[in-house]
Write a structure and sequence with these properties.
homodimer; alpha+beta; 3-stranded antiparallel sheet; globular; DNA-binding
Chain lengths: 94, 94
DNA sequence: ACGATATGCAAGCGGTGACTTGCATGTCAA
DNA sequence: TTGACATGCAAGTCACCGCTTGCATATCGT
């Protein structure tokens, strides 16, 4: 398993997670286009490498169908950050 | 304000946060000794530089008294991670 | 089958970050 | 005041990371 902390350290990777949160099941090309539309200059290869890191960290699930890949977000690995230092929304529930 | 994500990307900095969570108000020397005791090989200067990064990110509060500095943990900047991707312990409450 | 599309793989490059080294500053005790 | 202690500052080194480049692979439409 990859390092979740390292995975979210990069701004481009965080933008990818943002994009996947807004629209699930995107294709690599779709993702690239949208990122470029949001001002990011990342090439397809760069995004692909970022996805590999995110997948290693478990933050992203990649499902392959034919010549496409469909990418989905999985935020559950972020849970360990909360678990480690004990913060979170619940604290403000009362 | 510094980047919280970048701040927690480094294993040594996470160990510092762990140590401060277990024991608040430590001195730089104290912190170094404990980290070395836990198997980290960081020098004093290295730890000092890490603290600067953590302070920039708001994860640590440094209070200076005489020739000592006292370091305290502040986990509130981590909240933005939850706010951004909306996960957390509450989801599994039901 | 053939061309076009969508993605994978690998080597190389530049910049950034973590660490060390050496010295400077400041504070306490005697 | 002087020496020991606790920390700050700055330059230099080295490895890693993100990115590009170029080519390879695989799938769909016609």
């Amino acid at each position: 398993m990859g390092d979740v902390y390292k995975a979210i350290a990069d701004p481009t990777r965080r933008a990818i997670l943002d994009e996947l949160r807004d629209r699930a099941g995107q294709t690599l090309f779709e993702l690239c286009k949208r990122l470029i539309g949001k001002g990011f200059t990342s090439s397809r290869q760069a995004v692909s490498q970022h996805l590999a890191v995110l997948e290693e960290a478990g933050l992203v699930v990649i499902r392959r169908e034919g010549r496409y890949i469909f990418i989905d977000l999985d935020t559950s690995p972020l849970q360990q950050i909360y678990d480690r230092w004990g913060i979170g929304p619940c604290a403000s529930d009362t």
